[in-house]
From TrEMBL:
This is Methyltransferase. The keyword S-adenosyl-L-methionine applies. One of its GO terms (biological process) is methylation. Keywords: Methyltransferase, S-adenosyl-L-methionine, Transferase. GO terms for molecular function: methyltransferase activity.
């Protein structure tokens, strides 16, 4: 396959939206996203991606890290335990507000609002260029730019599988599949790996498999389900039956793909 074919595989339908539209979308999601990630019952620092960084000695106290699409700064905070020279960039100013608050005690932390392709053009500026779950990486040129501005490593992370038994029960009740969550598109990872390979690098891939007890509300579920008004009423009644003291407990299962490559062949 030609490299352009892999680009088509990784691209999402909303890639043509204007920057202003994307900023409004992510600004509106910022509070929900922050609350959702902060209340997850998991030890985030134990995730495989940070173990890889530690075991492979990818960072030291002088390393410079760029997190593309850093969101509320969850990964940045973990990176700051290795080095204080961390930079987060995001198209959403409200997401960055959360990140700034989270890293207020990290002296060298920087935050850049806007289109990262316009703001980061300097060759070999960072030791590690990182991107997790972000729609900001959708083209061959994006990956080339990651390689250009890194003097050592590039690292990407993406969900390739997630399972929520309660969503499955809803599907059984409705007799149809629910809309996929946007992060659960394993074809994206397939496209990225092959693009990096075709650019002449040697990407390594790892899989982080884990589960945790999720605490959600009816609103949390309904915000991620596309349905008719009739279906909505059925789903809400079903979820009320699962609810205890305003909360719904569900054991969720995930697999993240982690792609790491060195921009230097030797």
């Amino acid at each position: 396959m030609k490299i352009e074919e892999f680009e088509k595989i990784m691209q999402r339908e909303d890639r043509e939206k204007k920057q202003e539209d994307l900023e409004k979308i992510w600004d509106s999601k910022s509070e929900w996203f922050f609350k959702r990630t902060e209340k997850k019952q998991e030890n985030f620092s134990d995730r495989l991606i940070f173990k890889i960084i530690k075991e492979k000695d990818l960072l030291n106290k002088n390393s410079k890290v760029l997190d593309i699409g850093c969101g509320t700064g969850r990964h940045l905070l973990e990176f700051s335990k290795f080095t204080s020279y961390v930079t987060g960039t995001d198209i959403s100013s409200k997401m960055l507000d959360y990140a700034k608050e989270k890293l207020k005690n990290v002296s060298e932390a920087k935050f850049v609002h806007g289109n990262w392709m316009e703001n980061f053009t300097k060759e070999k500026e960072f030791d590690l260029v990182f991107a997790s779950m972000t729609p900001a990486i959708t083209t061959i040129e994006h990956i080339k730019r990651m390689c250009l501005i890194s003097k050592k490593y590039c690292l990407m992370e993406r969900f390739v599988y997630d399972r929520d038994p309660i969503r499955e029960e809803i599907e059984g009740m409705l007799g149809r599949k629910l809309n996929k969550l946007h992060s659960n598109q394993k074809e994206y990872t397939y496209g990225v790996w092959n693009i990096v390979w075709n650019l002449g690098y040697f990407p390594e891939i790892y899989y982080d498999k884990y589960f945790y007890e999720a605490e959600k509300t009816i609103t949390d579920y309904m915000e991620q389900i596309i349905c008719t008004d009739e279906e909505k009423n059925k789903i809400i009644e079903f979820l009320k039956g699962k609810e205890k003291n305003g909360k719904i407990m569900s054991k969720e299962y995930f697999i993240k793909a982690i792609i790491l490559w060195d921009v230097n062949i030797f």
